[in-house]
Design brief:
With about 350 residues, the protein is α/β, with parallel strands linked by helices. It is built from 11 helices and 10 strands. The protein has helices spanning about 15, 30-50, 65-75, 95-105, 115-125, 130-150, 165-170, 200-210, 215, 235-255, 310-320; strands at about 55-60, 80-85, 110-115, 155-160, 190, 265-270, 275-280, 280-295, 300-305, 325-330. The strands form 2 sheets. Strands 3-2-1-4-5 form a 5-stranded parallel sheet, sandwiched between helices. Strands 6, 7, 8, 9 and 10 form a 5-stranded mixed sheet that branches. It starts with 13 loop residues before the first helix and ends in a 13-residue tail after the last strand. The relative contact order is 0.13. It binds xanthosine-5'-monophosphate. Xanthosine-5'-monophosphate (XMP) binds near residues 168 and 222. Xanthosine-5'-monophosphate binds near residues 222, 298 and 335.
Length: about 350
Amino acid sequence: MLPKRYVNKKCIGGQKMAEIRRPDDMARINTPELADAFIEEQVRLIKEQVGDKKVLLALSGGVDSSVVAALLIKAIGQQLVCVHVNHGLLRKGEPEQVIEVFKNQMKANLVYVDATDRFLDKLAGVSDPETKRKIIGGEFIEVFAEEARKLDGVEFLAQGTIWPDILESEQGIKAHHNAGGLPEDLSFELVEPVRILFKDEVRVIGTRLGLPDNMVYRQPFPGPGLGVRCPGAITRDRLEAVRESDAILREEFEKNGLAGKVWQYFTVVPDFKSTGIKDGKRAFEWPCIVRAINTVDVMQVTVENIPYELMCHITDRITHEVPGINRVLYDFTPKPTATVEYE
Ligand code: XMP
């Protein structure tokens, strides 16, 4: 059994959820035994909270929401309705993979919503990072509300909020879209079973729940997706450059044995152009920034030492295969002073 205060006894209602905090002296969940105890307690608490009602889950396919989905499937099975919103800010191939893993393999109750145009239209011309995050978060809530109205008996909304999200929101570093609860006019209660966990603990829980390694150890991906890697006002062409360069980086890291070794890696395409040459002609195009970092708890982050030859190869591929990119830069900055994401 877990110590009493491990347990989210009052996890009913958005307001009370917001009060649940990680105890200062809580032991790190880093053994199968501690993970099993946490799972057992959470399954019991989820059943207690939810009863025979339905729960909606924003299933992005990232580690946090996937682990929450597995916990909820274990606790309440088909009462869970997973909603996968394609907001147009997902990585290449990601929506297809979510459908394959959760709908086809895990037989989850999954609703797929293609809301790409809706999100990108709302984001058009918006350059302030916090406003972008708020638009994306707000639109998510709207989409869920619409899906909920189509279903009977949905009273709960599950979220993959984790402890660093709460801390950084409180410290005013950034407004994580999934921290802070729902607007009052929505009648969902929150279910946040991994709220007091750090990322490394969420992975231990995921493994114990039987999720495949390539899901549990996949790199984290922020809720606002590629939107935070397309700094400033998002345009469809620059967003496509982020998506394509990210796909090349991932492919090269996988081929070269870095995928399982480096904690998080991605590309960013900032909103400025510089002069270059392509096919003997002037090419006034964007740079692509490569970020590759390592960490345990995401509060402190170091930069991966990518072999020089590999960086040259990645640079060659991105500048030749991705329309609109004429340079590749490498971000050497740890956290602090930088955050992992650019917005
Ligand atoms: P930062 O940029 O805060 O990122 O140093 C720390 C980790 O959190 C991820 N991240 C997010 N995850 N919603 C999420 O679910 C978000 O809004 C969000 N912002 C950042 C980031 O990718 C990194 O792993």
